[in-house]
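hiii so my PI (J.) wants the whole complex modelled not just the main chain, which honestly fair. so below is everything: two entries, each one labled with what it is. i double checked the lines twice but i was tired so who knows lol
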Amino acid sequence: MLHLQHLIRICSARLSYVADDRLVIHMEITFWGVRGSFPVSSPHCARYGGNTPCIEVNAQDTCVIVDAGTGICSLGKRLVEQGQKEIHLLISHTHWDHIHGFPHFAPLCESDVTIHLYALANANASLKDILCGQQQEPFFPNALDSVNADLHFTDLSEGQRWNIGPIDVQCRRLNHASYTGGFRLESVGKTFSYLSDLDLYGPRLHGEGMNTGTEDEIEQKRIGLQQNALELARDADLMVFDSFFLTEEYKDDWGHSKMEDALRLGAESNARRIAFFHHAPGRSDDQLDELVAHYSTEVHRDADLIAATEGDQVVL
Amino acid sequence: MVRPETRRYGVNTPCIQVECPGADTLVFDGGIGLHWLGNALLAESFGSGKGKAHLFFSHTHWSHIQGVPFFVPLLIPGNSIHLYGRAGLYGMQKVLCDQMNPAYCPVPDFFDDAIGAQVDVSELGKSPIRLGSLLIEYAEIGQLHGSPRLGYRISDGMNALAYIPAVEYLNDAVREAARALANDADLLIHDAYYSDEEYPTQQGRGHSCPRQALELAQGASAKRLLLFNHHPERSDQALDELANALNSAELPVECGRERGVYALEER
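here's the output for the full assembly
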C-alpha cells in the first residue's frame, strides 16, 4: 500500500512536466475515510470502506488534509514515514466523526512537524479548546497541549479565502448543526469542492443562530446557505457531497442530504465529477454499486458519478 | 477498506453483552460495538419502548464510551437504561453528558428527561449491584492519570465471569484486586493490548500482555481465558498465534472475537 502510494506520487510528478517546460501542477485527491457517523468494520462495507471522513489533497509539495475522522490514522503513519514537516488540516466541523481520528494522528508525536488547523469559527468555543476537550483525561491519556508537534489554530470567518502554498482555499457555511463549513480548493485551474455534512434542500435550518429573526430573515439565511453550496461547487472538477440518505430514508431533522441532491447541485453548479460521500454506516457495498449505476443515468450531461472509496485516488 | 487481515476478529471497540435467563439486558462497556448491539435489541422489547438495560463502564476513555450516542434504544421513550461506572473527580454524569455537547455530537441529548428513554447514571461506590439473581461485583484496578479503571465479576451462584479489559500490574494492590475478581471464574476476559515482546517498551501506558493475563488466570484458578482489547493493528494471524502459544487443556485460551458467543456451562 505504502509503496504503491509512492509510485503513484513519483509517476505523477514526472508527468507534470510538459514539453514546453511549463510546470503543470496537478491536484491529487486521496480518500482515507468516506463513512459517516462512526467507523464501521463489518463485511458489508469491505470494498467502499468504513473509516470516517478524511481526504488528502496534494498539490506540488503542499499537503492539505480535509477532516480528521478515523481515516487520518493511516494517513498520519504515511506522512511520518515520508517525512512531511508541514501539514495543513481543514476541519469542516467538530462533530465526532470529523475529529475523532485526530488524537491518533502520528505526526502529533513529531517535534519537527508543524500542523496548521483551520475550521469555521464556533461562537461558543475556539477550535483549540474543542480539540483539547477531546484529547485529555478522562477521555484520552495523552493531552493535546503536551504533544510534540507545533500546532497553529485558525478560527475562520464565513467566506474566508486564503492561500496554502499553490492552493487557493475558501470556506463557506453550510446547513448543518453547530457551525459547519464546506471548502473549495483551487490550484492552476483545477477545483476540488468538499461539501460534507449538509442538508442542502431540506425544509429546516440546522446551524446555531440560523433560526432567529423574522420569517423573511430566516428565508434569506436559507437562500444564503444554498448559494454558499453553489459557489463552493461551481465548475468543480471533483465535488464530494454528503449523500447519507436514500430518498425514502430522508429525515429533515438530521442535517444530511440525499443522493439526488448531489445530482441537483452537480447540475446547477456544472460540476464535472460528483462523488457520493459520508455513506451511512449501514449502507452496503452492493447497495452503493446499484445506486451509482442507477443515478449515473440521471446525472447531468458530461459529468461522472462515483461513490467515494477508501484508498482511491483521483488526479485532477 | 476494511483491512482483510483483521476481518475475522473484528475491530469494533469494546462492548460485551451478558445474557442470563430472566435477567434484564446486561452490557459491559460502550465502544462502537454498542451501536450494533443496540440495533439487534430493537427487534426485541427495546424497539417498542419496553426494554430494560444496565450498562457498566470499565473506564471513560473514548474506546469504551464512544458508541453510547449511537445506541438507538436510548432514543426510544419507554426504555429504561441504567449506566454505571466510576470517573473519580470528573463524575460519570458529567463525563457522559460532555460527550453529548452539541459542538461534538448532533444526536438529541437523551440525558434530558423530555428526550428518549429513562436514563439513570450511577457513580459506583463500594457496594455490589444485585440485579435479580445476578451479583455484579467490581473493584478499582488502578488509575491512569487520575482516571479510575474498574474490573467486574458477574455471578449467578453457579457460574462466574470476570471482565478486566484494561489493566496494568504496577503494584500488588492491583494484582490482588484483579485476582479476587477472577477467583475461580468460569471465564476471564482480560486485557492483552500489547504482545509479550512489546510490553517492556510500553510500560506505564496502562495495558498488559498475554503472559500477564495467563499469570492472573492461573493464580486465580480461572477455568478459561479470553484475551481482549486487542491492539488496532494486531492481525487475525497474530491473534491466532498469541492464543495458540498459551492455550492448554488445563486452561483453554482464545482471543475475543466480534460476535463470538461464549457459553458458561452449569457446574
